[in-house]
Amino acid sequence: MAVDITLLRAYTDGAVYTHDIGATITAPTNATSALDVDFKEVGAVSDDGITESFSQDRTDVFIWQGATLARRLPGQTSLTFTFAAAETKLLTLQLQYPGSTVASTTEGASVAQKAPTTDIRAWVLHGKDGASRAQRVYIPNGEITERGDVVWSSGGITVYEWTLSAYVDTNSVFAYRYYIDANMAS
Predict the structure, then answer these.
(1) Mean pLDDT in the chain?
(2) Which of 105, 111, 124, 131 has its CA at 20 to 30 Å from residue 7's CA atom?
């Protein structure tokens, strides 16, 4: 069995994009075309990058004969992406406090914080491995469903830790994935 180390990936750079609620965006359909102008970059992401998690419950069905496992029926499925936004700007504040009034002021910004509301929007995640390899993941319906603690500390920067849950679209698709890599074509 031959090993091809050119197929190993280390996504050491990238970006996370979303858009303002109410914006009509055009979905990306490949890994290289420019994104719709309404997509905005969340900004710096902590050095942990993005962690993708996929889970699917299974229901075991046993039969009487031999008390043996006969089937494992697929059950509930979820796809999440966890990352920490490291910039404090209007977009990150809007994502951190959905349903709140976030406004630009002459001094910087103000937030009239309310209980969070549902905030489903499209997302694009980019991972880059050098100049010729990349992955683009388009999530047509995503929502930040978990927010970590926001730490104020002299020992590090403040980050907004988020878990982005992907919901299916009208085609039952969680995410559309596109890759740039000439080595994969063979």
Answers:
(1) 93
(2) 124
